[in-house]
Amino acid sequence: MNSSAAIRPSVHGLRKAARRHLWMHFAPLGAAGGDAPVIVRGEGCHVWDDEGRRYLDGLSSLFCVNAGHGRGELGDAAAAQARELGYATLWGSAHPRAIELAERIAGLAPTGLERVFFTSGGSESVESALKLARAYHRARGEPARTKVIARELAYHGTTMGALSLTGLESIRTDFAPLVPGVTHVPATWSYGQPAGADPLAPAHAIEAAIVAEGPATVAAVILEPVQNSGGCLVPPPGYFDEVRSICDRHGVLLISDDTICSWGRLGTWFGAQRFDYVPDIITTAKGLTSAYAPMGAMIVSDRVAGPFESGETVFAHGLTFGGHPIAAAVALRNLELLEQEDLLGRVRAHEPALQATLDGLRDLPLVGDVRGAGYFWGIELVRDAVAARRFEPGEARDLVAWLGSALFDSGLLCRAADRGYPVIQLAPPLIAGPEEFAAIEGILRRVLAEAGDRFLP
Ligand code: PLP
Question: Does any ligand 1 atom lie closer than 6 A to the CB of residue 153?
């Protein structure tokens, strides 16, 4: 037995060791959390746990394994890069993979977004965008522009700046005081609105917030193309046109947080291409490497990069692992796979089938709404679908807790979330197709029917 095997717990000891030593994320600590399932292997659209049970990965694990599991090509790219150059910084010098990847990303991004600043994940990308927005305005002689408009319920990450933009009270309260100057406005809405409600009201709310704060103090608006929290909130037609005009009118930057909505998730490289708008900054991560290596990026327009090009003003910001050569090599190979296998085209071709499959669940009494785009869908669960009546918060919590384990026990990885109201979210790997959709539907139908029996009068 070699020394690393000697100190590694046996498979049977893993759950015990996790209870004692592993601090899991957004999870109760140690014994309070019970035995955590341990995922040990993945292949295609499936993963297996340490007891040999197979799960259909209906969430690309965390909206990120876009090319699917078990991609040896990505491992090979990492190994080759480790042999050639395991690490080099982007602090004053560069290395080939970061340069190639930056050029590649700029070629895929909307016109005018040419500069790529690498990070290690989504929170760091958002944090970087928040700092860049402030630094940009300061460099142009408007240092008072520090505030940001974000949306209620939206999740933008957990580092202090990104958390301050996040509109979920439940994960903010313990960490106050947060970064000041963030105003949250309503997200786009599709379900349960009174007839005749103006679908663009959420865009107008952004302008009202900018005006109320004082336009000369607002640095940026940050929005996801399709908002994850709240259950895949799709913008109504015209929303991003309107937001773009509002930002231009008031000299405010538009940041598109594409941490989830890029790299084919919506059938396009970026959300901007799906909804036809051009942001000033895009933040991304997750599917950039199909999650085979931690990597994020902030993609910046030439206009926003402008003040930093003279050499007089430097963006005083950096990260040891930003643009890591191994992550960059994996990202390059991943983008090659997405292209070679036309996974973006596949998403566009199969989106109607996925939607139709999920729409088919509307006959279940719990299902109030089905919404989404590409391979990113939410099912909102309600007390009374006909009257569009929602669950009370306590009921919603119990329902979501029950569903979370019931779906997992049924072999489906998806998200049962109670961020505002109960939703189930699906974001299968981009290699998924009708066979996986049918399996997802089968499990959801059975579990949701049982949930209806348990939680509806
Ligand atoms: N922004 C959005 C829209 C996200 O969905 C996430 C994570 O889910 C983040 C930021 C934070 O990303 P990370 O967990 O990689 O820090």
Answer: no
Query: Tokens 């963030």 correspond to what residue?
Result: 182
Domains of the chain, with CATH numbers? Answer: 37-67+342-455 (3.90.1150.10), 74-340 (3.40.640.10)
Q: Name the pLDDT band for 2 (thresholds 50, 70, 90).
A: very low
> How many whole angstroms separate alpha carbon 13 and alpha carbon 47?
20
Nearest protein CA to atom 13 of ligand 1, as residue:
122
Tens digits of residue pLDDT in 75-120: 999 999 999 999 999 999 999 999 999 999 999 999 999 999 999 9
Comparing 265 with 457, the larger pLDDT belongs to 265
177: preceding bond cis by omega (within 30 degrees): yes
Q: At what angle do helices 72-84 and 325-340 cross, to 10 degrees?
A: 150
Mean pLDDT of 266-290: 98
Contact indicator for 150, 331 with CB cutoff of 8 Å? no
d(CA 234, CA 265) in angstroms, rounded, equals 13
Cα-Cα-Cα-Cα torsion 356, 362, 368, 373, nearest 10 degrees, comes to -10
Cα(124) to centroid(ligand 1), Å: 9
> Which residue blocks in 307-363 are alpha helix, DSSP H?
325-340, 343-359
205-253 residue pLDDT tens? 999 999 999 999 999 999 999 999 999 999 999 999 999 999 999 999 9
SS3 380: strand
Q: What is the DSSP letter of 194?
A: P
Residue range 24-64, pLDDT digits in tens: 999 888 766 667 889 999 999 999 999 999 999 999 999 99
Enclosing H/E stretch for 96: helix 96-108
pLDDT tens for each residue of 401-447: 999 999 999 999 999 998 878 999 999 999 999 999 999 999 999 99
List, in order, residues 6 or more apart from 443 with CB less than 8 Å away. Answer: 56, 407, 410, 411, 412
What length is written for the chain? 457
Among residues 227, 241, 133, the alpha carbon closest in space to that of 423 is found at 227
Q: Which residues contact 193 (CB under 8 A, 6 or more apart)?
A: none
Q: How far is the CA of 155 from the centre of ligand 1 (A)?
A: 7
DSSP strand pairing (46-49 vs 39-43): antiparallel
Closest ligand 1 atom to Cα of 123: 16
Mean pLDDT of 165-183: 96
Pocket test for ligand 1, best of 25, 62, 118, 126 (most atoms within 8 A of CB): 126
CA–CA separation, 77 and 231 (whole Å): 35
Pairing of strands 422-426, 376-381: antiparallel
**Which two three-digit tokens encode residue 315?**
């963006």
